[in-house]
Amino acid sequence: MFSKSNLPHDPLPLPDRFDWTDDEARARVTGFFDLMARRHTVRDFSDRPVPQDIIETAVATAGRAPSGANHQPWFFAAVQDAGLKARIRAEAEAEEEKFYDGGAGDEWLKALEPIGTDASKPHLEIAPWLIVIFAQRWGEFDDGTRFKNYYVPESVGIATGFLIAALHQAGLACLTHTPNPMKFLNGALGRPGSEKPVMILAVGHPAEDATVPAVAKLKKPLGEILKVY
After folding, report:
1. Residue 45's pLDDT is what?
2. Which of the residues 62, 88, 124, 164 has the least number of beta carbons within 10 Å of its own beta carbon?
3. Where are the beta strands (DSSP E) in 60-104?
């Protein structure tokens, strides 16, 4: 971590090493691809409960992500309380009404048409968990003085990817939701001004009648996202 006092560089022998053969590595990465290829963003959630320890383990996995200077500039607020979820939905929908009423601009709204979204966000109450992801723009020592965090968006983005993968590994579905602005989340969750909310993840099991937009199945082929040099 980071300390106000000087901490010397203290290299340790690599504590974990995976000495797999190429065939073993190929099988493992292919298996993980097959799992993640079955990941779908859903907006239709079941109210089936999800045990808290599953959410905690997924967030702990996110906390293993690399970060700038190892400052780990993230915070995850896991919300199960029905009243708090209702408050978050109400305040998020108030921002979404402005967005869909022209605030987003015609081009953005047209881009969303194949997805089928609108200002109504019932999943924010139906999903058993909301995980609100905050980026810590700066940190504070015990005496209240600040220190700078580095590569915050990149670090939080990587951790969020870890989190989504862990949730899918548990057989759960999630939906990324980014109302704009999101400052109301600081007030609702009592988070300090040093933290910027960047995303709400609705998390749970998909409803029996859950659907996905057909366009979501259209993924760029490998040749469009990779060039080997």
Report:
1. 97
2. 164
3. 74-79
Q: Where are the domains of the chain?
A: 41-208
- Angle subtended at Cα 177 by Cα 47 and Cα 38, rounded to the nearest 5 degrees: 70
Q: Is 217 exposed, middle or buried (0-12, 13-18, 19+ CB in 10 A)?
A: exposed
d(CA 162, CA 64): 8
Q: Would you give the DSSP letter of residue 15?
A: S
The answer to whether residues 158 and 71 touch, using CB atoms and an 8 Å cutoff, is: no
Residue holding tokens 């983005």? 157
pTM: 0.94
Residue numbers in the chain where pLDDT is lower than 50: none
CA angle 188, 190, 192 (to 5 degrees): 125
Q: Which secondary-structure segment (H or E) carries 222?
A: helix 222-225
Reply yes or no: is the peptide bond before residue 197 cis, omega within 30 of 0.
no
Q: d(Cα 26, Cα 151) in Å, to the nearest integer?
A: 31
CA gap 52, 72 in Å, rounded: 23
Cα separation, 36 vs 161, whole angstroms: 11
Phi, psi at 115, each rounded to 5°: -80, -30
User: Are the C-beta atoms of residues 202 and 122 closer than 8 Å to each other?
Assistant: no
The pLDDT of residue 67:
97
Q: Does domain 41-208 have CATH number 3.40.109.10?
A: yes
What's the mean per-residue pLDDT of the chain?
94
Q: What's the rounded Cα separation, in Å, for the pair 182 and 34?
A: 34
